[in-house]
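Structural prep section.
Before we set up the soaks we want a predicted structure of the protein with adenosine-5'-triphosphate in place, mainly to decide which crystallisation condition to try first. Input record follows.
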Amino acid sequence: MTSDPPPSALSLQHLTKRYGPTLAVQDFSLDINQGETLALLGPSGCGKSTVLRCVAGLEQPDTGRVLMHGRDVTGLPPEQRGVGMVFQDYALFPHLSVLGNVAFGPKMRRVPKEEAERQAHEALSLVELTGLEDRRPDQLSGGQQQRVALARALATGSDLLLLDEPLSNLDERLRGELRGELKDLLARSGAAALLVTHDQREALAVASRVAVMRAGQLVQVGRGEGLFAQPATAWVAQFLGHENIFVQPDSTALVVPEQALQLGQGNAYTVTTQTLTDSGQNITLAHPLGPLHLHLSPREMALVEGGTLRLRVDEGRVLRVREDRDGAGSQPQQAAGAP
Ligand SMILES: Nc1ncnc2c1ncn2[C@@H]1O[C@H](COP(=O)(O)OP(=O)(O)OP(=O)(O)O)[C@@H](O)[C@H]1O
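Run finished without errors. Recording the tokens verbatim:
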């Protein structure tokens, strides 16, 4: 006899949400397992925060359901859903100490003071801020504030965490450092986490699965590297950072990943543009497929001779995908609610 698998930590079923004429979220379905971090990735305005707000109970979907461990919470107010949230601006209380900020959640749930502070100490130790309990938020660095916000969400004891662009207020260097840290922290917490971001690198670095959203709809979901290696459409490929995508006459496009390019072999093609970067040069080649963009290390640059570079494209590694970009070849669509 086989038993049914346990229900997902979070199950979103056919969510739709309109704001007047704007269809912010359209027939959106997704499941997250306990212990899993899923990134909801998409350009600005595609509906990511609206999905998150429907999960938190800050917004009611027009249709569809939100289930937590199989329980329908669609009609429940935020305080009865028991989710921990980390916002973009951390929303820390400036007048409270670090400990006070983190113990706030348990105290609101009427946990006795001592126990609330014990839970707060535990969460602070998880984010490695032990020793800073008495400081106020303005006495912390941006990265430390971010970790307090995370500790506060963890101290709610919730097994579902919602993170809305949690690293966006940090500078590039710190953001890079904290990506790996956030991934470990979330894994250690054992909670299911839904991370909203428009940053591809953040999604790939922090989450085990990535859901790509465009104009209110889910367009592809998969493991990070798998998604980059097998984008479902030209728009997804471009959004994830593929540079060499060539429209074909039959409504498809060819995606040429870096691994398909063998330098120093085959025909010689003219270098049409060349710009210096920190790690080498970016060049464009006049190739029959179209202008081909390459990042070359100083060593690879030695292969450029007389303004040309020999190159072979391994056809077995070229992907053929559906062309779904607006006016094919232009930037990804930015706004939700477009027809
Ligand atoms: N309260 C609101 N009233 C009217 N329109 C709204 C409201 N909230 C969001 N929208 C619209 O719904 C769409 C989706 O917005 P949402 O904030 O969910 O996108 P997002 O992907 O989170 O964007 P960003 O990355 O910029 O935060 C946008 O077109 C937005 O303008």
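Observations: The mean pLDDT is 89.
Flagged for discussion at group meeting.
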